[in-house]
Design goal:
Blueprint (H helix, E strand, L loop, with lengths): L3 H11 L3 E8 L4 E6 L5 H23 L7 E4 L3 E7 L4 E8 L4 H16 L3
Antiparallel strand pairs: 1-2, 1-5, 3-4, 4-5
């Protein structure tokens, strides 16, 4: 697990507007995380794991055996980008209002590929 933290720290550094990155399980548990702001990453992962489970179930029910490749939730001041790493784990990237979604997607996919072998 110690090799995961550098990926997450670098992701927050590389993506404009990113303030946290975490690996979560679909069971809602935080595996590893890095935050540049004071936040409860465990709670953030738990809440978004539920959204990932619902998205997976919805896509599976309506489109057959299809799972979302990424999920982006945008709020007024905060956004969250989610990218599956394996069927049981996902990458969460928390972004502020000045974030760059293109960077989040590009660097998030690369980080997910790098983390997949470690899970």
């Amino acid at each position: 697990m110690p090799l995961m933290l550098p990926h997450l720290t670098q992701l927050v550094t590389d993506v404009d507007g990113a303030w946290a990155a975490a690996i979560g399980g679909l069971d809602g548990l935080l595996v590893e995380g890095h935050a540049a702001a004071d936040t409860d990453l465990g709670l953030l992962v738990a809440e978004h794991a539920g959204l990932m489970r619902v998205a997976n179930a919805s896509y599976s029910d309506t489109l057959g055996d299809v799972n979302p490749r990424e999920l982006y939730l945008r709020g007024e001041r905060v956004s969250v980008y989610l990218h599956p790493i394996t069927p049981d784990f996902f990458l969460l990237l928390a972004l502020d209002g000045r974030s760059n979604l293109g960077q989040a997607r590009l660097y998030g996919r690369a980080a997910a590929r790098g983390l997949e072998a470690q899970l």
